[in-house]
Structures are given as structure tokens and as C-alpha cells.
Amino acid sequence: MTVLALDIGGTKFAVARVAADGTFLDRAEHPVGQSPTATLRGLVADFAGPGLTGVGIGSAGPIDAAAGTVSPINIPRWRDFPLVATVRRFVPGVPVSLAGDAQCMALGEWWRGGRTSSSLLGIVVSTGVGGGLVIDGRPWTGRTGNAGHIGHVIVDPGGEPCVCGARGCLETIASGPGMVRWALAQGWTLAAGRPDARALTAAARGGARIPLAAFHRTAAALATAILNTAAVLDVRDVVIGGGVSAAGDLLLDPLRDTITERAGMPYLRDLRISATTLDRDAGLHGAAALALLAAGEPLREPS
Ligand SMILES: [Zn+2]
């Protein structure tokens, strides 16, 4: 049994043929290009072949899983783009499944990331903050396909307006741009170069006061959102991925400390917070898992 996994990012598309045990048979990656639809057609044509059981797609959002459409922010030509219907035309007769990229990251980390628990919360901290859930060994996508979207958990009701229309969402604080905005407002200056998340991380690593405080503030906001989510869902593992997570212990140490300090209920005291182990491949593994589940193939339990 072989499935095709597609990872639709804002700047590049990745594709892999994946065996039922999760092994990548081959893979490729392409920049989105002038015509995203042509790029997609080319990738699928190169990899699809006889014996394909299904296609799983993880896509940058917003997505509408029920309608099978996507509107990735960085691909302006795709607004309410019928991604599922389009891929179906490229591979007639093969079932196609779609989920958000952060949901695929969570599913991939749960399946192939060496975790041992039945339930996991995956969080992608990048230019935005996304998330996905695996509950009792199944991806949990919710009524509209948006379950796990932890970036819009409100952690500061009087806080900054969020792009979503609410105020004080986790994303306003913990995203790369949110952290940089706050640090600059506190008086952080950079001798040379662009003040972005990468520069902020380097400065924090060098011991600079404001950048370090920005990481502590992000850790505190993440801790609030994670503890509230875990209190409701009783997950054991929390996996952090995305560009900002490359800061590693700079983010994870204060996050773990804050969670230990604040956790009340016994089932929240043994939350395991870890960084992604699959990195960019997590999304492809998750997309493959989607296709396997849709084909009725049970995912091997992590062992
Ligand atoms: Zn929001």
C-alpha cells in the first residue's frame, strides 16, 4: 500500500510517496512558482502511479476542510481554491484527504516522532501560531476542521487586537512578529540587520535583556494556553515546532518551568513538552497518515 503525501506551504510544496509503515519511498520539494496550480500538477504527475491508495494533503491555512478549499495567506492566487477537487482531477479515482498543516504536524509527530502517549497537542510557532490535536490515537479536527487552533486561545483579554478580530490571542504574543513587535516597543535596538525573530533569538542567546524577556513572555503565554487546553483535553504530550521553536531551550526551558510552577491538577503535572523531532517532515508524515486512515489502514501505534 502506497499513499501520496502533499505538504502545501506558503512558499513551497513538498511531496512524498509513503509506504503503510511510514517509510518515505521518495520525496521532492518545489518553490510555489508563478502558477501554483501548474507546480502542483507537475509534482503529482511525477509521483502518482499505479497502486496509489490515497492522497493526503496538509495545507497552510485558512482551509475549509468540508469544502476542500484552501486560501494560504502567502499564495494570493489561491483564494477558496478547490484543492481537493483539483488533486482529484490529477489522480482520478483515488481518494483525497485534506487537513491543516499544523494538524498534519501533530499527527506526524504522534505517529512517527517517537511519542508514546495516545493524545498529543502539536503547536507550530512561526509567523503565526497554529496547532493540531491527536486524541486517543485519532486526529481530532472538530466540526469545521479547525480544532486545535491554539493560536486563537485568548490569553490576555485586554491585549492587542488579533488578525482574527478578537483581542489578546496567543498569536499576538507568541508569534515571531508578535515577539519582535513587543521587544521593539520595549526599546530593543539592533546595531545592524533586520529586527526579525531570528535576530531576536540571536540577541537572547547572547544574553540581551529585552530579547530574553520576550522569550519569557512568550513562554508564559504559551504555558497559559497549553495548561488551559490540557485541562480540557487531558493530553500528555505537547510538541512545539515552527521557526520560533528553533530557539530550542531558550523557549522550552522557561515554558517547562512556568508549566511546572502553575500546574494544579495531577494530570497536568506530568505534561511532556518537547521540540519537534521530525522537523519539516512532520507535515508529510501527517498527510500520509491522513490518507492511510481514510483508506481504513490502522496507523501503527507508536511503540
Ligand atoms: Zn486571534
From TrEMBL:
Its EC number is 2.7.1.2. Transmembrane segments: none annotated. Signal peptide: none annotated. It comes from the Bacteria. PROSITE patterns: ROK. One of its GO terms (molecular function) is glucokinase activity. This is Glucokinase. It comes from Actinomadura livida. The lineage of its organism: Bacteria, Bacillati, Actinomycetota, Actinomycetes, Streptosporangiales.
